[in-house]
TrEMBL record:
It comes from Ovis ammon polii x Ovis aries. The lineage of its organism: Eukaryota, Metazoa, Chordata, Craniata, Vertebrata. This is Uncharacterized protein.
Amino acid sequence: MPWPLLPLLLLLLLLLLAASGAQTTRPCFPGCQCEVETFGLFDSFSLTRVDCSGLGPHIVPVPIPLDTAHLDLSSNRLETVNESVLAGPGYTTLSGLDLSHNLLTSLSPTAFSRLRYLESLDLSHNGLAALPAESFTSSPLSDVNLSHNRLREVSVSAFATHSQGRALHLDLSHNLLHRLLPHSSQAGRPAPTIQSLNLAWNRLRAMPDLRGLPLRYLSLDGNPLAAIGPGTFEGLAGLTHLSLGNLQGLPRLAPHGFHELQGLQVLDLSSNPRLQWAGPEVFSGLGSLQELDLSGTGLVPLPEKLLVHLPALQSISVGQGVQCRRLVREGTYPRQPGFTPKVALHCIDTQELGARGSNTL
C-alpha cells in the first residue's frame, strides 16, 4: 500500500467508528442501571438510558444523569405520579418514559408539564380510569401507549400535544371504552394530530366521531360494533388501513358502508364468522383498495361482481393459507375493436404449495 494513502485510511476508519456509536455503562442510582450511548467524532455526544424497573415504589423520585434520554420506571407498584416525581436535573431532556405495569389509577394534570422534550410515553398495564383534560399539552409526544387500563370514556381533545404538527400514534386498546368524545373546536386548541389509533378490544357499539383527525391507521378489532353503513366513516377520507377483525356480536355490513373511504388501501375483516353483508355493493367506493382480508368470515364464495367495485384490488385472503390475486386476461392478438380485458380472481392454497415444496426437497 502506498504510504500517502495510509493516513487517509486511518482517518476514514476513525470516522466510521465515531459515527457508529458505542455503548458503555456508568455509575447509577443504587438498583438502577445506566447505559450510555456515545455519538460523534471522538464520542463528543452521549445519551443515557436509565433502567429503574422492578425496584418498588420507594425508588421515586430518582435522580438521573443530566443527559438521560430514556427512563424506565415500569413494574414498581407506583400508585401515583405527579410533577414532583418527574422533576429535577436530567428530567428536562427526557424523550422516552416508561411507566407501564404499575398501579396507577389517576394522573395529575401537571404530571408531565416539565417534560418539554418527551416523545414516547408508555402508561400501559395500569388501572387508569380517567384522563385529565390537558395531560399531554406540554410535551411533543409522538407515541402514547394507554393500552390495558380501565378507561371508560375519553375525550379526543385530551391528546392535543405540543407536537407542532408531528404525527401521533395512540394505543387505547384493551380498555373499557364505550364512548370516545369528539374533539371540540370551541376548546381553542387545534385537533390532535393522531395518525394511528388503536381502539381494539373495547366496548364500542358504534363508530366514534373521529372527524377532523388526520387518521391513516385505525383498528377497531374486537369491539361489539352492531352495523356499518353509509356515513359510518364520515370525515376519514385519508384513512389507508382499517382493521375490523373479531367483531363481537352479530355485525352487519350495509351497502355503501365504506363509501367515504376512497383512499383506503388495506381492509381487514378477518375472524368474523357471523358477519352479515348485503352483497358486493358493500365495497362500493373503495376505488383505492389493494388488499382485502376475508379469512374466517362467511363472505365466501366471492360474488362475481366483487371486482367491479374494487378496481385497484390486488389480493384477497379468503381462508387459512388461501390467497386470491387479481388476474387480467388480455385475450388473443391482434385485439378486436372494443375489446375489454377480462378480470378474474386466481386463488391458490399457499399451505398446500408449501407442503409440496417441502416434499420435493
